[in-house]
What we know:
Layout: H1 4-15, H2 18-22, H3 27-53, H4 66-69, H5 72-75, H6 77-93, H7 100-129, H8 149-172, H9 192-202
Keywords: Membrane, Transmembrane, Transmembrane helix
Transmembrane segments: 78-98, 154-172
Amino acid sequence: MSNPSAAATLAAPSSRSFLEKLNSNWHERALQGYMLVVLAHWAEHLTQAIQIYALGWPVPESRGVLGLWYPWLVRSEALHYGYAIVMLIGLWVLRTGFTGRSRTWWMIAFWIQFWHHIEHALLQGQALVGHNLFDKPVPMSIIQLWVPRVELHLFYNTVVFIPMAIGMYFHMFPPAGEVTHGAVCSCAWKPKQKRASAARTAS
């Protein structure tokens, strides 16, 4: 004789939508892939800063790592805007896997990135229409009027990354008494037997 509750438990994961899976049983892998992209991009900005301030390279020659072999990557406003969009979408899509304090910090990162994306949209718009704001010789974002582009976008990527990292910390090590997605998400730092016990309890 079949057990209806067991059958329902087995069927539940497959009945979830793609987004629900990304924020439950696929959440850990999705976050790992997303963070690899974020860290690689941030490393490019850090490398560019090192080339300018530690190695003394001229700014036009300081193109990070990939930019040394593919200079068009640094010059392409479309590519920079595309990354800003990908990062914004990732923050939004993966947000429901976070709860409590981790969700608060994750959404702080989202809203900072939302503004960062607006700045890149302005740059991309100027590149498309062929006219720069304030009659500047190069595309300009708003804050770039006061802060040079290299330093500004290194700052943006840093202030987005910091609350993301804090959110990830609270997601992996949830404070005592805080409700988590531990039964369906493997991100929380628990021994495997505790995860299995939590999954049995949730079912």
